[in-house]
């Protein structure tokens, strides 16, 4: 998804809203945004990089305008969700990893990029506290990075994971001799673990690799105890999935065009809607400095945390950063759930409204119209 340039609006540090790049009052900007929403026959709400209250307000607004909802990072996140709902998956909490996992397998090169503190958060340098095996943890890396125990590039990964599944099941594996020896040795190591966990980030893995990993976890449970810990993606995408599903019973990609929530990963893919001219107004939310709106010819209403208006936004609002400018509830990988994130300090609190406040005003004005 391409990010747009930022238009210089001069001394915009104190600005809260813009219309066509010019500083405006919040009231005028709300009126202008609502007019665009009313003119749109198929509005889309995207980005969704915000906190729990902002997500709740986004669902309410989408329902009011009959629009669609899609998170900027949903493409990767849905790979994990599809695995869970299509084949099932044995998952584990970070607390269980800290307390019990004898063997931790890191697959791909995306875990550290998405979760830089994962090793400390999971106490991987500590002995498991309640595991039957009291020795040191074994950390195994499978990926393209230097130092990987099984060095595999991204293109080869599904093949190697399939071979590993076959080796775990005792089936014939056809690979070059050196590769075969490494895969068979790893299979024996995994089967010999009293309790193992496989970590991966779908941000850097394709759907086939994710499917192979889910199958590997299930295969290993025939011989020992294994679980998966898919790493949550950026932009609070896991918080978005949990919040939207908690309200509607369905995750993003979601649409309200027929008066009820419907989930369809293809139909409500925001980039597809834009590319195929199936949306005529885009409301973009990024309070977490994650990603600016995509290039699009349709009118854009932007809620962002920057000091300037996105170049292509017809209407823009400056919003506070969750957990920095205002208290917030966000997903935290270290606990595997949504937790309270107080504002960094009293000094960092700003006069900027949060996303929920702006969206609430838009919905109220739209419904009053």
TrEMBL record:
One of its GO terms (molecular function) is formylmethanofuran dehydrogenase activity. It comes from the Bacteria. It is an enzyme of class 1 (oxidoreductase). Keywords: Oxidoreductase. Its EC number is 1.2.7.12. This is Tungsten-containing formylmethanofuran dehydrogenase, subunit B. It comes from Granulibacter bethesdensis. The lineage of its organism: Bacteria, Pseudomonadati, Pseudomonadota, Alphaproteobacteria, Acetobacterales.
């Amino acid at each position: 998804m391409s990010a747009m340039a930022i238009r210089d609006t001069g001394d915009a540090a104190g600005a809260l809203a813009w219309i066509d790049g010019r500083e405006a009052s919040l009231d005028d900007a709300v009126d202008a945004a609502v007019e665009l929403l009313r003119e749109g026959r198929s509005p889309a709400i995207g980005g969704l990089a915000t906190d729990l209250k902002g997500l709740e307000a986004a669902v309410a607004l989408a329902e009011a305008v009959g629009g669609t909802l899609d998170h900027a990072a949903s493409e990767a996140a849905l790979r994990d969700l599809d695995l869970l709902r299509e084949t099932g998956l044995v998952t584990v909490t970070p607390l269980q990893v800290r307390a019990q996992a004898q063997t931790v397998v890191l697959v791909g090169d995306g875990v550290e990029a998405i979760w830089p503190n994962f090793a400390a958060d999971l106490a991987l340098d500590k002995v498991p506290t309640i595991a039957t095996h009291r020795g040191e943890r074994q950390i195994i890396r499978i990926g393209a990075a230097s130092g990987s125990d099984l060095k595999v590039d991204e293109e080869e990964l599904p093949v190697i994971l399939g071979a590993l599944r076959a080796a775990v099941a005792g089936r014939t594996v056809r690979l070059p001799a050196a590769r075969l020896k490494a895969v068979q040795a790893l299979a024996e190591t995994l089967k010999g673990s009293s309790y193992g966990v496989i970590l991966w980030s779908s941000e850097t893995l394709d759907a086939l690799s994710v499917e192979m990993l889910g199958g590997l976890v299930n295969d290993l449970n025939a011989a020992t105890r294994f679980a998966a810990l898919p790493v949550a993606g950026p932009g609070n995408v896991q918080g978005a999935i949990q919040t939207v599903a908690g309200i509607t019973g369905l995750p993003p990609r979601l649409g309200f065009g027929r008066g009820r929530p419907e989930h369809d990963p293809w139909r409500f893919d925001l980039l597809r809607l834009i590319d195929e001219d199936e949306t005529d107004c885009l409301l973009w939310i990024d309070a977490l400095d994650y990603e600016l709106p995509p290039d699009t010819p349709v009118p854009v209403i932007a809620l962002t945390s920057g000091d300037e208006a996105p170049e292509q936004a017809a209407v823009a609002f400056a919003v506070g950063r969750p957990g920095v400018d205002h208290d917030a509830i966000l997903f935290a990988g270290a606990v595997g759930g949504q937790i309270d994130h107080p504002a960094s300090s009293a000094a960092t609190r700003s006069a900027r409204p949060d996303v929920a406040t702006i969206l609430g005003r838009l919905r109220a004005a739209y419904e009053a119209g």
